[in-house]
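Methods, example record. To illustrate the input and output format used throughout this study, we show the complete record for MFS transporter. The sequence lines were provided to the predictor; the line carrying structure tokens was produced by it.
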Amino acid sequence: MPSAPPPAPEPAPFRVSAAQAGLIASNFLMWGGFFAVIPLVTVHFSGPTAGGGLGWSAASVGLVLGLRQLTQQGLTVFGGAWSDRLGPKPLILAGCLLRTAGFAWMGFADSLGVLLAAAVLAGVGGGLFDAPKSAAITQVTREEHRTRMFSLTSLSGNAGMVTGPLIGAALLGLGFRSAALAAASVYLLAALVLAVTLPHLRPQRGAGRSLDGLRVAALDTRFRRFTLVLIGYFILSTQINVAVTLKAIALAGTGATGPLYGLSAGMAVVLQYPLLRAVERYLPTRTALVVAVALVGLSLGLMSVATTFPALLACVALYSLGTMTVYPTQQTLTARFAPPALIGSYFGFSAISLGVGGAVGSVLGGALVDTGAQLGFPALPWVTLAAIGVFTALGLRWALRGLDEAPTDAA
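The corresponding predicted structure is encoded as:
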């Protein structure tokens, strides 16, 4: 009688390495530095001169912020491909240094042209470190631990999102230049942390020429479907800054934005990691992503019947539970699609969904609110967004069919 096969080895417990700790800490610094200065750009350059602002038009400041976003998202696609050729560390460090220079230059901007140039430089920096940072997380983390590692990284980013504006507001009393220089120095500190903790991750065999990886990602039918369907989710995730904010102001005035963003970011800091641990235990990663996107759509649909600010905040809490689950599961699945030698290219290509979805969502959210008001049908934006959520969830279920699940972590 043949002997029974030996039991499968237990998965290794998750222990944060020096490289992982450096990535988590630097992500906190990057998000904190970003939110310490970017909200102040509007306050300083378009604020009334009587209050210390420069009195520029809101349109000109919107152009600056939009150009930075467009530059960063456009370059992210190529930054991922370059990291497959050079390794992620040089690109992340170069990106941090360029972001340092861009933010510092903003502090000395006295004309629209100078501010635009500084914003483009800051955007180039972000485009260089964005996808390589995700590639580095993937390379220094075992497959069964990646969802948890992406969750910790996201948590650190949300913590930076909460603390950054507080630090920036405090520094604004010393002048915008001081705030911009302080935010720039934070990126320099992030570069130093990664220079010490992150090893040089050599490109793996099979990376090919600089843009070959992007070509492979674009021709990967299942991954292309996954990326395109995710545009629907990013249309929804943008609404916290558009339709949801407009409804909050309509219900409770301009002071409503503080509690709105505080609740969203605060929930992510407190709940994201334990929530992801529970999700990992009971749901496959693919299912978790589909359910989370459906939850985001449902929460936006429920906002159609929220007639008080507390009711709206309850919907925002539900919305946040969905969004905080999407990021780590989406990143984990992107890494699972990618061949080991082309991880950066796949993360770069995936940035298309955020760029397109964010741009479409910003326009669509405001247009739906205006159209609903003109038609006397204020529920229009929320019904439409809920429908987008349903179709996106179904689309993800279709796009992820046949993708193998990674081994689970029992630790």
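Annotations derived from this record:
The domain at 211-405 is CATH 1.20.1250.20 (Growth Hormone; Chain: A;).
The chain has 14 helices and no strands.
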